[in-house]
């Protein structure tokens, strides 16, 4: 997707976006610090900022496009029940993109239909709002922190549903402060700062670039991905195995897309040793090389690890780093728990 956008929000702040997301991707993520302009960007694309000028390749040859926009607080009609909110969206839909039952089940809101909006929690309102937007038959779906009030398992369930819709051709642009979710489920990610697009690329490339820039030091993740392995006995353990750079890894909460598995590993969860065998209770062992060693901050050191094109990070204490005498170029085993 190609995007060019100019909008003066106020005398002190303007959006000036030039972005080219890689390839023909349908599920794009957008992140960045508060006040960077992410929500305003969505409002521009939704046609709510009349003074803005923009061009989006998703809108080419689509003069009568219908854009769905879901805000963080849902903005449901308060005088209607959840069911009536959804029925109203269907009444005015452009075309029957999605069936009622599929959307209600996918958004996990079947049990909420007869509730009044005033009786819904924040997370319940978000699920109904997402279902309402889909039932209206959008050509493009814009999401502004749409799942922020949901628990982990419900959030992953809805993200998997959105991923499935994107695979069927629905263009989705989702704003979230949670880079973890975006990296797992989006095809590509953009990072906005001070009104400009700092980077837009494959999720792993964005995570690596932000690490090099010193962003999110305390929340640095490595993205491991590869082909799922057919290990049937793992079904009893609720996990899957996949091959990454010739090594077998295991995960529970990773994202599955066809035969591909994605898993994010928090730098704080990665321990290092020099033993290639895995005689530890920690299931995952990934042999890699130390690429860079960051500055000591608050008694901690961030190490960048690599195996070919795959990047992983380990945030360890300065004491451990000095005791082990770790150095750039050394081969180590990174260990992290099954999650």
UniProtKB/TrEMBL annotation:
Source organism (scientific name): Alteromonas aestuariivivens
Every Mop domain range: 279-339
InterPro entries reported in the protein's UniProt record: AAA+_ATPase, ABC_transporter-like_ATP-bd, ABC_transporter-like_CS, Mo/tungstate-bd_C_term_dom, Molybdenum_import_ModC, Mop_domain, P-loop_NTPase
Name used for this protein in its record: ATP-binding cassette domain-containing protein
Domain ABC transporter residue range list: 1-219
The UniProt record lists the keyword Lipid biosynthesis: no
Signal peptide: none
GO molecular function annotation: ATP binding; ATP hydrolysis activity
Gene3D superfamilies for this protein: 2.40.50.100, P-loop containing nucleotide triphosphate hydrolases
Single GO BP term: molybdate ion transport
SMART domains given in the database record: AAA
One Pfam family named in its UniProt record: ABC_tran
Chain segments annotated as transmembrane: none
Keyword line: ATP-binding, Molybdenum, Nucleotide-binding, Transport
């Amino acid at each position: 997707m190609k995007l060019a956008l100019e909008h003066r929000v106020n005398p002190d702040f303007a959006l000036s976006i030039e972005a080219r997301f890689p390839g023909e991707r349908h599920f794009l993520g957008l992140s960045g610090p508060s006040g960077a302009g992410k929500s305003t960007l969505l409002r521009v694309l939704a046609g709510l900022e009349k003074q803005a000028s923009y061009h989006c390749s998703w809108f080419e040859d689509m003069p009568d496009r219908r854009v769905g926009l879901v805000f963080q607080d849902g903005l449901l009609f308060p005088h209607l029940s959840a069911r009536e909110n959804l029925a109203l969206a269907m009444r005015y839909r452009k075309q029957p993109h999605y069936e009622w039952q599929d959307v209600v089940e996918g958004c996990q809101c079947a049990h909420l239909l007869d509730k009044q909006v005033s009786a819904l929690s924040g997370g319940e309102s978000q699920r109904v709002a997402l279902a309402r937007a889909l039932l209206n038959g959008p050509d493009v779906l814009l999401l502004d922190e749409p799942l922020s009030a949901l628990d982990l398992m419900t959030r992953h369930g809805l993200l998997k549903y959105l991923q499935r819709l994107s695979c069927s051709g629905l263009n989705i642009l989702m704003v979230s402060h949670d880079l973890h979710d975006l990296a797992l489920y989006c095809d590509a990610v953009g990072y906005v700062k001070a009104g400009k697009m700092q980077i837009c690329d494959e999720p792993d490339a964005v995570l690596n670039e932000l690490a090099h820039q010193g962003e999110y030091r305390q929340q640095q993740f490595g993205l491991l991905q590869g082909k799922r392995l057919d290990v049937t006995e793992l079904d009893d353990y609720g996990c899957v195995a996949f091959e990454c750079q010739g090594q077998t890894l295991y995960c529970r909460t990773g994202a599955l897309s066809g035969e591909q598995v994605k898993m994010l590993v928090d730098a704080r969860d990665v321990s290092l040793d020099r033993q290639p065998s895995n005689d530890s209770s920690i299931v995952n062992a990934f042999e890699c090389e130390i690429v860079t060693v960051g500055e000591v901050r608050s008694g901690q050191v961030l190490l960048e690890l690599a195996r070919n094109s795959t990047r992983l990070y380990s945030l360890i204490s300065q004491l451990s780093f000095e005791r082990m005498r770790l150095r750039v170029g050394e081969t180590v085993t990174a260990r992290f728990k099954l999650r």
